């Protein structure tokens, strides 16, 4: 009986979480987040985070020079106990440094997890198909993209113009806190329209 109740509780929680994530593209969370955010502040934080990443990781800087644009989320907050949530704001930095578009990332996860952490990540969009995916009408489910590669130090060291074969490369940076593991599975990116 106890096992049945636990299974039912987990199933209900997952169903509610799934519905919440799928509706967040146009839901109240996204709208409230956009209303409480400033374009200038998000752009400034994104540029500073990208400069820091490039200074600390020459391969990321090289990858940025090859990309059409880089979607930077300077500060993601992730926390949870068994069920986790993460979220943050970022902007799309074009090769020439221009920023016109702003985005929110949110995600839910479940499993053996406990703690809180902050981190940033950058998505290097290498071609037009990656840019089109970003602006799909219902938001972009990042973890479902077969053309996404998460770079670690070893993989980044072997990058060259001959080995870039995917549309999107992700690099994590500035990880702080007490929660193990970083990933993009189950996260969704949605365009937001913050106040000037």
Describe the structure.
By secondary structure, the protein is α+β, with helices and mostly antiparallel strands. The chain has one domain (2-192). It is built from six helices and six strands, in the order ααααββαββαββ. Strands 1, 2, 3, 4, 5 and 6 form a six-stranded mixed sheet that branches. α3 (39-56) packs across α4 (58-66).
Average pLDDT for all residues: 73
Helix run count: 6
Please estimate the helix content: 25-40%
Span between termini: 55 Å
The total beta strand count reads: 6
Question: What order do the SSEs take from the amino end to the carboxyl end, as H and E?
Answer: HHHHEEHEEHEE
Strand content: 35-45%
Radius of gyration: 17 Å
Q: Give the overall shape.
A: globular
Can you summarize the main beta sheet? 6 strands, mixed
Regions with pLDDT < 50 over 5+ consecutive residues? 1-32, 153-163
Q: Topology of this protein?
A:
Blueprint: H1 2-23, H2 28-35, H3 39-56, H4 58-66, E1 69-94, E2 99-125, H5 128-134, E3 140-141, E4 148-150, H6 153-157, E5 168-177, E6 187-192
Parallel strand pairs: 4-5
Antiparallel strand pairs: 1-2, 2-5, 2-6, 3-6
Short account of what is shown:
This protein is of the alpha+beta class and 196 residues long. It has helices spanning 2-23, 28-35, 39-56, 58-66, 128-134, 153-157, and strands at residues 69-94, 99-125, 140-141, 148-150, 168-177, 187-192.
